[in-house]
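Sequence, please.
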C-alpha cells in the first residue's frame, strides 16, 4: 500500500549547509520519534502506511517526517527525514512515502499555523469516518475536547499522489484542527508536536468509548450545546501545558521500555 515518492529533481536546487543540527531541531526529532513509538505501542498505526510530520524549528519551509518502509515502532530520531516542500530530502537517508509528502508538504505550506500533523488509520476514529453523519456525537466528556474543532472531508478521492489532492485536503481542513477523512482515516493538526500527540491520543479514546456506547443499542445522550462549548473552552485553556506533560510522560515510559527511540 505504501508508495515511493518519485519527483524529478531537474528543476530543483538542493540546499546544502543549512544549520539543521541545533539542539532545538534534535529535540523536535526526538519528540516526533517518541510519538511514533508510542502510537505503535498503542496500536494507532497501520503497517508502514501512516505518517507524522512537524515543521523544523526556525525553518518554516522544511518539515520532519518518518521515512518510507519503516514501521512506527522502528522510528528513531536519526531515522527521520527533513524535507522541503519540493520533495527534496535535505537531511536523512531514504525518501518519504508519496502520500506522506503530498499531504504533509501541502498542508504545512498552505497552513503555516500547523506545526505538527499526524495522519493515521487508527481503528476507532477511522471506524467513525466510515459511517453516515457527523463522526462525533458529543456524548462523552473526552469528545468535548474537540467540540468546534472538527472538519469532515466528505469526498474520498483515492490516494493523495499529487499536489492537487494535498491541496484539496488542506482546504477542507480550513481553520479546524481535526479532519475526519471519510472512508479513509483522520488527520490531527496542532501548533506543536506535544499538542498533536495529546489530541491524537484523546481522539482515539473518544472514538472508542462512543463506539462502545453505540454498540449497546441504546440511544446516545448528547451534552447540551452550551455546556459542550463551555467545557471545550475550559479544556482548551489548559491544553498546551497538559500536552507538554503528556509528551514528557510517554518519553519517561520509552526511556524504560525502548530508549533507542532517541538514537
Amino acid at each position: 500500500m505504501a508508495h515511493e515518492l518519485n519527483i524529478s529533481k531537474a528543476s530543483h536546487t538542493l540546499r546544502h549547509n543549512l544549520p539543521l543540527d541545533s539542539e532545538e531541531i534534535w529535540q523536535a526529532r526526538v519528540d516526533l520519534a517518541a510519538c511514533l513509538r508510542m502510537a505503535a505501542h498503542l496500536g494507532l498505526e497501520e503497517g508502514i502506511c501512516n505518517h507524522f510530520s512537524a515543521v523544523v524549528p526556525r525553518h518554516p519551509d522544511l518539515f520532519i517526517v518518518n521515512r518510507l518502509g519503516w514501521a512506527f515502532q522502528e522510528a528513531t530520531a536519526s531515522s527521520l527525514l527533513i524535507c522541503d516542500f519540493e520533495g527534496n530530502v535535505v537531511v536523512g537517508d531514504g525518501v518519504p512515502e508519496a502520500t506522506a509528502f503530498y499531504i504533509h508538504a501541502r498542508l504545512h505550506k498552505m497552513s503555516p499555523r500547523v506545526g505538527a500533523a499526524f495522519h493515521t488509520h487508527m481503528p476507532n476514529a477511522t471506524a467513525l469516518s466510515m459511517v453516515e453523519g457527523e463522526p462525533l456525537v458529543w456524548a462523552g466528556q473526552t469528545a468535548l475536547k474537540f467540540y468546534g474543532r472538527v472538519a469532515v472531508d466528505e469526498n474520498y478521492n483515492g490516494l493523495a499522489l499529487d499536489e492537487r489532492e494535498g491541496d484539496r485536503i488542506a482546504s477542507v481542513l480550513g481553520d479546524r484542527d481535526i479532519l475526519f477523512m471519510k472512508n479513509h482515516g483522520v488527520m490531527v493538526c496542532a501548533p506543536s508536536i506535544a499538542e498533536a500527540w495529546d489530541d491524537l491520543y484523546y481522539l482515539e479514546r473518544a472514538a472508542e468509548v462512543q463506539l462502545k456506547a453505540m454498540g449497546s443499542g441504546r440511544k446516545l445522550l448528547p451534552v447540551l450545546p452550551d455546556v459542550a462549548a463551555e467545557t471545550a473552552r475550559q479544556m482548551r485553556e489548559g491544553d498546551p501545558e497538559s500536552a507538554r506533560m503528556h509528551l514528557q510522560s510517554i518519553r519517561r515510559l520509552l526511556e524504560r521500555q525502548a530508549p533507542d527511540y532517541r538514537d
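Helices lie at 23-41, 98-110, 123-128, 163-173, 193-215, 225-257.
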